[in-house]
Amino acid sequence: MKKIMLFLISFFLLLQVQSQPYTYPLPAYSPAQANLEYRERFRDMKFGLFIHWGVYSVLGDGEWVMYHKKIPYDNYKRLADFFNPVGFSAKEWVQMAKNAGMKYITITSRHHDGFSMFKTNASSYNIVDATTYKNDILKELAKEAEKEGIALHFYYSLVDWGRTDYGHGKRIVDGKPENTEWENYISFMKKQLTELITNYPNVKCIWFDGHWDRKDANWHYDELYSLIHKLNPEILIGNNHHMPPLPGEDLQMFEKDLPGENKTGYRKDNSIGALPLETCETINNSWGYNINDRNYKSVKQIIHLLVNAAGRNANLLLNVGPMPNGKIQSEFTDTLAAVGRWLQKNAETIYGTRAGDMQPQDWGIVTSKNKTIYVHLLKKINNDYIFLPGLENNIRTASLFGSKQDIRFKQVPEGLFIYLNNMIQDDIDTVIRLEVH
């Protein structure tokens, strides 16, 4: 009995050790001047287009369809034979993003299923070698984005459900899946990342995802991050690991959450660092094309997401999942066009702004730029006034944005009263412009 107890204790202690997240003794990182400059340009952009697209779109059930439907990998790979997006137009995609007021595009270069959406010599399972389409859509998109002044970012999955050297589902021992050639998989990722940076020279960011699949594995971030910054010091590195940023990373990302929130429950540490911030969200409930998902967010909801992100110093990266033919469904394009029309009128209150000194309020949020504060009322106010607590700026004038109507205000040591009498409030966002001395 004693031997059994000792065995059980040893066994559970072993499991506990193996389940601990891997700690990264990463070297100190000093970003290049070009990197710091792009960080500021990125902060100014505020609005980007996320694109989840791959062979999974053929099944119309999201990007995790292989995993959720338990499709054997050898069968799943046959989807490449059906993926022939003859309706794809880089020009249409980039123009759609530009008309929506988006300043950058982040697209999946490789997702968890291992299919590469670009020509790669590291794997034959790619859009050029494995499909009848034969065209490198990332190359086409890169050219068009550069032509239109849209920055291009690449999403790259750390996960690969099909490669044997990834060892999907295997137990992690000493930082790597047992009985696999883990170092070979790291080498494979290095080859692909080198291709993405050298063959697409206008890429500005590598957006990693999948760390959460193996929190206790050694992903060799010291090698991956140093490689990327060596190949192009300007490039930003982000990692959707749901942790505080690690050394070598240049932005902090929040999946389906605004900074400071944790509605998804992904984050144990909800701290916000000093790096540029970005929150990613979907127009419906799916990242990849899902033919049954009709839970579309309204134009108003998306504008509120954008304003709330800007008021928290973050960009909004809004996702579409193109159809297998390369077209983007009208429910997405129509919504984005309407958001773009709103942004044309309200651009000043979003682009290039930073969060105000005031915390978000139940009525809305503020953005600021130079000596101007923009008060965004995101719901109808029935009171005669709103109060901005802790606002210490010396306010010179207050007016309704987009008009010449002056707004009465009163400044006290505790903050600012703004009086709403005789003011017509907007259904989406009533913006009051405050000029500071």
Please give a structural write-up.
The chain is α/β, with parallel strands linked by helices. The protein has 2 domains: 24-351, TIM Barrel, CATH 3.20.20.80; 356-436, Golgi alpha-mannosidase II (Immunoglobulin-like), CATH 2.60.40.1180. Helix content is 27%, strand content 21%. It has 10 helices and 18 strands. The protein has helices at residues 2-18, 33-45, 65-68, 73-76, 90-99, 137-148, 182-198, 221-231, 299-310, 330-346, and strands spanning 47-51, 104-110, 151-157, 172-173, 176-177, 203-209, 236-239, 252-255, 277-282, 314-320, 354-355, 364-369, 372-377, 385-389, 395-400, 409-412, 415-419, 430-436. The strands form 4 sheets. Strands 7-6-3-2-1-10-9-8 form an 8-stranded parallel sheet, with helices on both faces. Strands 11-12-13-18-15 form a 5-stranded antiparallel sheet, with helices on one face. Helix 5 packs across helix 6, helix 5 (90-99) crosses helix 10 and helix 7 (182-198) runs parallel beside helix 8 (221-231). The protein is globular. 41% of the residues are buried. Residues 6-18 have low confidence and may be disordered.
